[in-house]
Each structure stands twice: as structure tokens, then as C-alpha cells.
């Protein structure tokens, strides 16, 4: 018997015959937020991301300005025309999102239409994400309720960053160094 099997056997014997106990869980599933868009934009900005809150009619112009001169990946299902590139030559990626969380400034991709693959969203140094105002929810439990747990989920809270042992912040280690978010109202 391996050490793992021995430990699990001991645990099994220790709890044998114990009564099932229901643990009440009273998690907060919603949060009252007066202005989801403003809170989300503030939180995204706190993460050192670039954020624009624009009327829907101004979004195409902002996208064109943001991607000018960049070789961009545009995933299937993203409503955009132009000269676009593949992962090996890309400077950046442009996506939609599945949901966004105001309280945490988090963007969630479920890699559905317009959201690309994980590699497409994590390899390029620049990520431009377009978030519709109706995709913003107040808190994480609300976001989870909107998501399909069988889909691959990528949770993005700002540009990729980490700190070394001396607490020096290094960006772009595990994903895009620059995150730009356009919130379409």
C-alpha cells in the first residue's frame, strides 16, 4: 500500500459512521451597485489597464485607433474587417468577453465567438477587449451564474503581472503586458 492509500484509508476509518452534517452557506450572490460601468472602469484602471468608456457608435473608431500599426489576431466571431495576422506574427489580440465583474474589474472569457483561444489571448503582448455594458455584473457570484462551467474560462484582472522576491513588479510574464478595455455603453 502506498503512503497516499494508507493516509486515505486512515481518514476513511476515522470518519466511518460519522453523521452527515449540512453546513449552511449564506454567500452573497449579488451586490447593489448604482453604476456598474463606472465601478468596473475604476477597477480596471486600478490594475494599470487602459480603459475607455464610450457610446457604442464611437467604439469602431476607438478600435481602429488602438490597433493602428499593430498586427492583430481577430478571433472567429469578432465583428471586424481588416488585415489580420496569426499567432506567430501577432502584436496583439482583440476580443469580446463573456462577462465582466464590476467589483473586481475582472474580465472573463469563455472562448466563445469573438473571444479566441487561450493561446490567442495569452501569447500576444497586447490585448484589446471590448465589453458591452450589459455584460457587466456586480460581483463574482453573479458572473459565475452566467457562465457555463464546462467551457474553458480565462479570468483577467489587469495586465499580466508578477513580483519577484524583492517585490519588483514585472509585467507580461504570463500573458499580455498591456490590457486595453473598451466599455461600450
Automatic annotation (TrEMBL):
Pfam families according to UniProt: LUD_dom (PF02589)
Q: Which domain of life is it from?
A: Bacteria
Query: What is the recorded name of this protein?
Result: L-lactate dehydrogenase complex protein LldG
Pinpoint the LUD domain residues. 83-183
